[in-house]
């Protein structure tokens, strides 16, 4: 089963640090970005699957 991935987006790095800990500690995979354009790029990019390259 694939881990659930959460994307946190905020332009304040300290906010990202604070809010990243809770889901990470709960076992979620967390990605953080500080820019809306980067977030959209991540959302629309095809997923990377291990062993498929």
Report the mean per-residue pLDDT as an integer.
Answer: 86
Spell the H/E element sequence.
EHEH
- Tell me the helix content: 40-55%
**Judging from the principal axes of the Cα atoms, what is the shape?**
flat
Q: Strand order across the biggest sheet?
A: 1-2
Cα separation of the termini: 20 Å
Tally the structural domains.
Answer: 1
Report the β-strand fraction as a percent range.
Answer: 15-25%
Low-confidence stretches: none
The largest sheet is: 2 strands, parallel
Radius of gyration: 12 Å
Structural class: alpha+beta
Number of strands: 2
Discrete helix count: 2
Characterization of this structure:
- This protein starts with a strand and ends in a 9-residue tail after the last helix.
- Strands 1-2 form a two-stranded parallel ribbon.
- It is built from two helices and two strands; from the N terminus they run βαβα.
- By secondary structure, the protein is of the alpha+beta class.
